[in-house]
Each structure stands twice: as structure tokens, then as C-alpha cells.
Write a structure and sequence with these properties.
454 residues; mainly alpha; 68% helix; rod-shaped
Length: 454
């Protein structure tokens, strides 16, 4: 009789406990969005203690597994909630940066030499501080007076799989993937170039020290000793560096194409056959120099100068291209045989074989001079391709001479190797000569005089 009564009692208790667990789960789910963990953790601790007491009252029952599942699920929900909170915070930081970049700046309000660097530091500090705050909040689950905190079946999965992998690693991967989204070409809502630059440097800073610091901090605060498979610091750093590289490449592409657009329109909208004799540098060339100078100042706020190849002492003077065929003859005789001789064609082709091949859209290094070199290469290559599609008169050719000379006077100081872009400058003038119906070169002294007047 006692056995039958005990069996019925156990069945009755199990039935009630199932309902009880269901109510507890529903109530805990309501606390998913709560801002304070203290009350939730204390409630879960009391719930866990009472289950232990139930097991002692009825030795034939074991509610530990069901109770542990509820506690673990509640902790997992809190981790997920904080992950979403961190993602939203990062999105808000991006919005703040965009607004600061778009807002008109009052003269004297910001130091123009450190404005982007200040935005970068503020963003990085805000993100790291928010992560620290979240980690401190989650430590409530591991307080010494919490009964389930020291249980291996809770502590190991919560600390490693929950906090480290599910929160910190997941958020760091989210930052990298979010940054990569800015590299996608979109018709609407394209990112401002300065934002690409800031995010690129942010990823570099994370790769250099922040990722390692955050993971070390997490492991120390949560005393991780369990041997679970985890994402390595190296993998996370590689992801961040890859994102930084793609962002910087995209920045170069965007800025290069912006300047290219100006150059393309300036070539396509002009009647080069009937233009007048050049008396000054075209306004678009001055605008190109202004934009390149502004980009140089912008990049210089975040990246180091970089390495330049040693230039010759007469770089500022050696600005008249002589590599194209027939230029000397043009200056002497003033006439050009449009159907080139076999010798000239042969020499031109041989020269191209030995000229340095220039990769226009190659990956850039994390330095100012490399970034500017990439932008200038894209711009000059566009200029060259546009020239090859037009037909020029004598004065059109001379105007191109003046424009390229003016660009060369100022752009050489921005590039890593002036010989690299010298090839493009020479090709622009050479192509113009070949596309000219009545080629006659302007004297270098006259070109110098026009460019000095601006």
C-alpha cells in the first residue's frame, strides 16, 4: 500500500511541477528585456534552492535537470539580449559619426588636424566601455552566494559558450561584418568617404590590441578554466584586418572615381578640335589639386606618412614629358606626320614592352602615401582613357600639355614613387599627340609661364 501511495504521490507531484515549470518559464521570459540582472538572478537562485529541497523531501524525484535548464535558458536569453544591445549601440555610434561628419563645423570649434581622430577615439572608447558594462552586469550570475553559480554544468557553458563565444566573439564578428557592408556599392545611402576611413582605422586598432584586450578581460573576469573549443584571437584579428583592408581599398576607389568623374566630364564636354590657344590652366585641374590636398589632410589624421622612394633632386623641375615618340621633332619642325613611320611604331612598341606595368586598382598599404598614390593612379588612368577617345587640334594638344604639367607640378609630392605616375603623365601626352590632327608642341618655357600664373 505504501508503495502504491508513494507512486501516486510522485505522479501527482510531477504533474504539478510540470505546470509550475511552465509558469516559471513564462515569467522568466518576461524579464528578458530587464535592465537589472540582480532581481532576476536572486529569483533564479531561490527557485534553484527550492528545487534542491524538493529533491530531499521526495527522494524518488529529481527536478534538477528541468530546473537547471530553466536557469541556463534564462542566462542564455540575457546574453542574447546584451548582444542585441551591443549591436544597437554600435549602430548608434555609426549614426553619431555620420551626423558629425555631415554637420557643418564652426571655425575654431574643432581642431581640423585631429577631427577624424577624435571621432575614432570617441567611437572606440564608447564601444569598449559598453562591452565592459555588459560584462559587469553578467557577473551577477556568478556571485559567490548564488547556488547554481559554482555548478560545473552551469558555469562552464555560461562563461565560455555564452559570454565569450555568444557575446564577445559574436559582437566582434558583427563589427567586422557591419564594416564590410559599407564596401558594397549601393545606389542609395552610400557611406561618406570619411566614414570608410574611420572604420578602416577602427578595425586596425581592434586588430592591433583591442580584440586581445577584450578577450583577456573576459577570461579573467569569468575565470574560464573549462576546456571548450573557442574562436582564436588570431582568427578574430585576421577578420578585423581583412575588413580594414577592404574598407581602405574601397575608400581609394570611391575617392579616385570621384576625381575621375570630374576629369572625364572636363574632357568629354570640350571641343578639342576648335579650342583656342591655351592661356591658362583649366579650372578643373585646380579643383583636382584642391581635392587631393584635402584628402591628404584627411588621411593624415588617421594614418602615418608611409615610405616614399627617394626622389631625384630635380623632381620639381623635371616636369616636361620626353618619353613619347616625335616630341623633339615636333618642337623643331612644328609638323607631325600623322601616319607614323615603321621605325617610330616599332620603337614605341618596344618602349611599351620595357615600361613598368602599373596596377591601377591594387591593394593599398595602411599609410597616407600609399592611399594617395592609389587615388592619383585611378584619376590619371581615367584621364588617359578619356584622351584616347577624343580627337584633338593643335591647341587642344597644347592645352593637355599645360594641364598635365600643372598636375605634375603639385601631385608628385603626394605619391610614393613619382616615376610610377610619370609613366601615366607621359602616356597622356603621347596619346594626345597620336589623337591630334595637327600636332605642334608648345615650348616648355611657355608652359612654365602659364602654370606659374595658375
Amino acid at each position: 500500500m505504501d508503495a502504491i501511495a508513494l507512486k501516486k504521490l510522485v505522479f501527482f507531484v510531477n504533474e504539478l511541477m510540470e505546470k509550475y515549470f511552465d509558469y516559471v518559464q513564462r515569467r522568466v521570459r518576461l524579464e528578458r528585456e530587464t535592465g537589472d540582472n540582480t532581481i532576476l538572478v536572486r529569483s533564479l537562485d531561490r527557485f534553484h534552492r527550492r528545487l534542491q529541497a524538493m529533491n530531499k523531501l521526495l527522494p524518488d524525484t529529481d527536478f534538477s535537470r528541468a530546473g537547471t535548464d530553466i536557469v541556463s535558458k534564462a542566462a542564455k536569453d540575457r546574453v542574447y539580449h546584451y548582444l542585441q544591445s551591443l549591436k544597437q549601440h554600435f549602430s548608434d555610434c555609426m549614426t553619431d559619426v555620420r551626423q558629425n561628419l555631415a554637420a557643418p563645423r564652426t571655425v575654431g570649434k574643432h581642431d581640423s588636424n585631429s577631427y577624424l581622430n577624435d571621432l575614432l577615439n570617441n567611437t572606440q572608447t564608447a564601444v569598449v566601455d559598453q562591452i565592459k558594462s555588459v560584462l559587469n552586469n553578467l557577473q551577477a550570475f556568478l556571485d559567490s552566494d548564488i547556488t547554481f553559480a559554482m555548478k560545473p554544468y552551469f558555469r562552464g557553458p555560461f562563461c565560455v559558450q555564452g559570454v565569450r563565444e555568444g557575446l564577445i566573439v559574436a559582437f566582434l564578428n558583427h563589427i567586422s561584418s557591419t564594416c564590410l557592408e559599407f564596401c558594397e556599392d549601393k545606389d542609395k545611402g552610400s557611406a561618406p568617404p570619411a566614414l570608410l576611413l574611420i572604420l578602416s582605422k577602427l578595425c586596425i586598432e581592434f586588430e592591433a590590441s583591442t580584440i586581445s584586450y577584450l578577450l583577456t578581460l573576459t577570461e579573467e573576469q569569468f575565470m574560464m578554466t573549462e576546456r571548450f573549443p573557442v574562436t582564436s584571437v588570431t582568427d578574430l584579428c585576421n577578420n578585423a584586418k581583412d575588413a580594414a583592408q577592404k574598407l581602405l581599398n574601397h575608400f581609394v576607389k570611391v575617392q579616385g572615381l570621384s576625381i575621375s568623374q570630374m576629369l572625364r566630364k572636363s574632357v568629354e564636354t570640350r571641343d578639342w578640335l576648335n579650342t583656342i590657344e591655351p592661356r591658362n590652366v583649366r579650372a578643373v585641374m585646380k579643383r583636382v589639386i584642391e581635392d587631393i590636398t584635402a584628402i591628404d589632410a584627411q588621411v593624415g589624421q588617421l594614418y602615418e606618412e608611409g615610405v616614399r622612394k627617394e626622389r631625384s633632386s630635380d623632381s620639381s623641375r623635371r616636369t616636361h614629358p620626353h618619353s613619347y615618340m616625335g616630341s623633339a621633332a615636333l618642337r623643331k619642325g612644328g609638323q607631325w606626320n600623322y601616319a607614323p613611320s615603321i621605325d617610330n611604331s616599332l620603337m614605341s612598341n618596344i618602349q611599351k614592352l620595357f615600361s613598368e606595368k602599373i596596377e591601377i586598382f591594387s591593394a593599398v598599404e595602411f599609410s597616407k602615401v600609399s592611399v594617395l598614390t592609389g587615388i592619383i593612379k585611378i584619376s590619371l588612368k581615367t584621364f588617359l582613357e578619356c584622351v584616347r577617345l577624343r580627337t584633338f587640334g593643335r591647341y587642344g594638344l597644347q592645352q593637355i600639355q599645360v594641364d598635365t604639367h600643372y598636375l605634375q607640378l603639385y601631385l608628385w609630392r603626394f605619391v610614393s614613387d613619382e616615376n610610377l605616375v610619370q609613366v601615366l603623365w607621359d602616356e597622356i601626352v603621347c596619346s594626345t599627340v597620336h589623337r591630334c590632327l595637327d600636332p605642334a608642341m608648345m615650348e616648355p618655357s611657355v608652359i612654365d609661364l602659364i602654370c606659374e600664373r595658375g
